[in-house]
Design a protein that fits this description.
Blueprint: E1 12-13, E2 16-17, H1 18-47, H2 53-82, H3 84-102, E3 110-115, E4 118-125, E5 132-137, E6 140-154, E7 164-166, E8 177-182, H4 186-193, E9 204-209, E10 212-217, E11 222-226, E12 229-244, E13 264-268, E14 273-278, H5 281-313, H6 318-323, H7 325-348
Antiparallel strand pairs: 1-2, 3-4, 3-14, 4-5, 5-6, 6-7, 6-12, 8-9, 9-10, 10-11, 11-12, 12-13
Helix pairs in contact: 1-2, 1-5, 1-7, 2-3, 2-5, 3-5
C-alpha cells in the first residue's frame, strides 16, 4: 500500500498537511454549531419565547431543511464567484454573527392569565413535572394548578332523553367505561396493501361499558353500536383553574411532582379563563436574523469541507482513502458531533409546551 505523499519542504503538523488541521477545526465548529442548535432550538423557542409546539416544530424543521438547501447555494457561489478561501471566511463570519446575535435574548415572553375581568402575570419555577405556576391574587402571591377531568357522553341515553355521562375506569377498575383498540403491525399493514392473508383482522375500537362490549365507529363523530342502534359517543376533558391559599411549594411530592393536600382558595371553571402571550418583538426579530446568519454560515462551510475532503484524497486509491488522515479525522468528527447531539437531547430534554395552560 502506498503512503500519502507530501511535497518535500512542506510544513506539517504531527505529520499531517497544515491545511488538514484548518479543515478539521473549521468543520468541528460548524458541526458543533449545527448539532448544538438542533438539540437546543426547540427548548429555547418553547421555554423562553413561549412559541406553540406547532410553530416551534415548523421553525425547527425550516432550520434543518434550509441548512441543506444553503449548502447547494453556498457551493455554487464558491465555485463561480468566491473561491474556497473566501467562502470559508464568509461562512465563518456569518456563523459568528449568528451565534453572537443569539446571545441577545431579552427577558423572554410574558404569559397573562385572564378571569373574572382581571388579568394576571403568570410566573413559573422548575420544568417538566416539577414546574410550578404562580400569580399575584388579592394582594398576595399564590400558587395555581390546573385540574383536568375526563369523561364521556352517550347521546340521548340518560334520564329524560338527556346525555348519559360516563367516567373512565382507573387502574383499580373503578368507573363506568374503558376503550380498547386493536391495530395492525407494520408488516400486517404491508400485507393489507398487497391483499395478502397475513394482514390479520381489521383494526377495531371497542367500548367496554359496565362489563358489556360495544363496537365503536370512529370518524369526525364516534358512534357506539348499542342494542342495534348507532349512538353518538364523545370523550371530553374539562380543565378548571384552582388558586391555592398561599404560594407554598411543599404541596408537591418531591419524588414525583404530583399534587397532594391542596388548600384551594377558589376554583375557576373550564371556559371561564383564558391566557395570552406577550413577546418582545425586537428579540424575536434578532432571533430570526441570527438563525438566518447561522443557516447561511453552515451553508457555506458544510459543502466546502466536503469539497476539500475530496480534494485531499483525490489522488489516493480506495484502500488509501480508508486509512488516510482526511477520512479518519472527518469520520471521527461527524460521529462525535452526532453522538453529542443525542447526549444533548437526553440530558437536557425539551419543554412541556408553549404555555403554562398546557396540562
Amino acid at each position: 500500500m502506498s503512503e500519502l505523499k507530501i511535497p518535500a519542504g512542506e510544513k506539517t503538523i504531527f505529520g499531517h498537511p497544515r491545511g488538514l488541521v484548518v479543515l478539521f477545526f473549521t468543520e468541528m465548529w460548524e458541526r458543533f454549531s449545527y448539532y448544538g442548535m438542533r438539540a437546543l432550538l426547540t427548548l429555547y423557542l418553547v421555554q423562553h419565547f413561549l412559541f406553540s409546539d406547532e410553530k416551534s416544530s415548523s421553525i425547527y424543521g425550516a432550520y434543518i431543511a434550509l441548512v441543506y438547501v444553503m449548502s447547494i447555494i453556498g457551493g455554487s457561489l464558491s465555485d463561480k464567484y468566491l473561491g474556497q478561501r473566501k467562502a470559508v471566511t464568509f461562512g465563518a463570519i456569518l456563523l459568528v454573527l449568528g451565534h453572537t446575535g443569539m446571545a441577545f435574548e431579552g427577558s423572554g415572553s410574558t404569559e397573562f392569565l385572564k378571569f373574572n375581568g382581571n388579568e394576571y402575570v403568570m410566573e413559573d419555577e422548575g420544568r417538566d413535572r416539577f414546574r410550578q405556576l404562580f400569580i399575584n391574587y388579592e394582594g398576595a402571591p399564590r400558587r395555581i394548578v390546573f385540574n383536568s377531568k375526563n369523561y364521556a357522553t352517550l347521546a340521548n341515553q340518560g334520564a329524560e332523553g338527556g346525555d348519559l355521562v360516563l367516567t373512565p375506569m382507573n387502574k383499580d377498575g373503578e368507573g363506568d367505561y374503558r376503550i380498547e383498540r386493536t391495530s395492525r403491525s407494520f408488516f400486517q399493514n404491508i400485507c393489507n396493501v398487497v391483499k395478502l392473508g397475513c394482514a390479520g383482522e381489521d383494526p377495531k375500537t371497542t367500548l367496554i361499558l359496565n362489563g358489556d362490549s360495544y363496537a365503536v365507529e370512529e370518524g369526525e363523530l364516534n358512534y357506539a353500536m348499542i342494542n342495534g342502534a348507532r349512538v353518538e359517543f364523545k370523550e371530553n376533558t374539562d380543565t378548571s383553574l384552582q388558586i391555592l391559599t398561599t404560594d407554598t411549594r411543599e404541596k408537591s411530592d418531591p419524588e414525583t411532582g404530583t399534587l397532594k393536600n391542596l388548600d384551594v382558595l377558589t376554583t375557576i371553571e373550564d371556559g371561564q379563563f383564558s391566557s395570552r402571550n406577550e413577546k418582545q418583538k425586537l428579540y424575536v426579530y434578532i432571533l430570526f436574523f441570527s438563525l438566518s446568519m447561522i443557516i447561511a454560515g453552515v451553508g457555506f462551510l458544510s459543502l466546502i469541507y466536503r469539497q476539500s475532503l475530496v480534494a485531499c484524497m483525490i489522488n489516493m486509491t480506495c484502500d488509501e482513502i480508508l486509512v488516510s488522515p482526511c477520512f479518519i479525522w472527518v469520520l471521527t468528527l461527524d460521529h462525535f458531533c452526532q453522538l453529542g447531539h443525542v447526549a444533548f437531547l437526553v440530558f437536557i430534554g425539551v419543554g412541556n409546551g408553549d404555555s403554562a395552560l398546557q396540562v
